[in-house]
Amino acid sequence: MNLDQLRQGIDDVDLQIQRLIERRAELAQQVGRVKKADSNDQPVVFYRPDREALVLREVIDRAQGDLPPKRIARIFREIMSACLALEEPTRIAFLGPEGTFTEAAAQKHFGSAGRPAPQTTIRDVFREVEAGSAHYGVVPVENSTEGVVSHTLDCFINSPLKICGEVEMPIHHNLMAAGAIDVRAITQVFSHQQSLAQCRQWLDANIPQATRTAVTSNAEAARMIAEDMPAGEVWVAIGGDMAAARYDLEFVARRIEDEPDNSTRFLVIGSIEPGPTGDDKTSIIVSLENQPGALYGLLEPFKDRNIDMTRLESRPARMATWAYVFYLDFNGHQQDPEVAALLDDLREQCLELQILGSYPRAVL
Asked: In this UniProt entry, which residues are annotated as the site Essential for prephenate dehydratase activity (predicted)?
């Protein structure tokens, strides 16, 4: 075929794609109406993390062309997000302000049609979802370089919310300025304390003269250098692409993180409990008696039942001095027979066991 024929072929395919997307939107609206009609005046759940994870995995599994399977899945993620918004726009609380990596994680998981609701603290994210002002929340839980976000773990202890999903984000830090600058003239670097730690070696080697100042978030650092920088000072911020775009900043240096594989895991929190998908995780909190062999007894059932534990963290308990609770992630869903048996084993030896949720493993 010549060029004109190829272009006509693309136009024909585009028309088919558009008509099919419109048909999908019609069906999504019908699903919303059926859910409302069958609700018996109970709250209607429009977004189902387990259902969406299964759809996206099927998209990846059936990919056959030259496009990478996960890239196709991201396109479907946006189509699904737009269709879901026709049923009911999903309000998502996240650790703000706008332009943070947490907002980027929320958009990756829910698509761009979700309604973002930035919050000042992680506790505020929990409160917003608990009060019903947001359908879901997104909070950071661990970084591959700096470790666990302890405040997120602590918030689960007294919260009724469940983990509904997870998001894994590669974290690339950039040095950003409000305009063209001389690196040697930089006086202060602003960023979240974890980002400063993740870029320590680069900062030591390239701008050792600059004072490092920790602020509440990378997005707040970007806002400060865009709006608050006094005359005579040369301020820069560390942050991601979303923060740079939000505050119209220029990149001084790209990807300055010390570890090239730096990534952060985020949790999606809500009031629903997703069903099993065949590729799930379960998270729990347990408290143990302070006696020899207690931790060994906690770990032994995982080995006996051949269940893979993916994380174990300890946090100070608030009921007694030098007492601790343990946070565990492991593969499987609480409705899986082996996992259900494991949980029964753990209940027999734990003072308390709280299931934080069983949820689909990150797809994208």
From this structure: 264
pTM of the model: 0.90
Give the DSSP per-residue string, 33-60. HHHHHTSTTSPP----HHHHHHHHHHHH
- Residue 183 and residue 256 in contact, taking contact as beta carbons nearer than 8 Å: no
Query: Does the structural domain 174-261 have CATH classification 3.40.190.10?
Result: yes
Domain boundaries, the chain: 44-170, 174-261, 275-360
Which of the listed CATH numbers 3.40.980.10, 3.40.250.10, 3.90.170.10, 3.40.190.10 matches domain 44-170? 3.40.190.10
DSSP class per residue in 150-209: HHHHHHHTT---EEEEEEEEE---EEEESS---GGG--EEEEEHHHHHHTHHHHHHH-TT
Output the tens digit of pLDDT for each of the chain's 364 residues: 899 999 999 999 999 999 999 999 999 999 999 999 998 888 888 999 999 999 999 999 999 999 999 999 999 999 999 999 998 889 999 988 888 899 999 999 999 999 999 999 999 999 999 999 999 999 999 988 778 888 899 999 889 999 999 999 998 999 999 999 999 999 999 999 889 999 999 999 999 999 999 998 899 999 999 999 999 899 999 999 999 999 999 999 999 999 988 899 999 999 999 999 999 999 999 998 888 888 999 999 999 999 999 999 988 876 665 578 899 999 999 999 999 999 999 999 898 999 999 999 999 9
Structure tokens at 174: 């950039």
Confirm whether 174-261 and 275-360 share one CATH topology: no
Q: Which two tokens stand for residue 232?
A: 């005579």
Our separate counts of H helices and E strands in the chain read 12, 15
d(C-alpha 208, C-alpha 159), whole Å? 43
**275-360 maps to CATH 1.10.760.10:** no
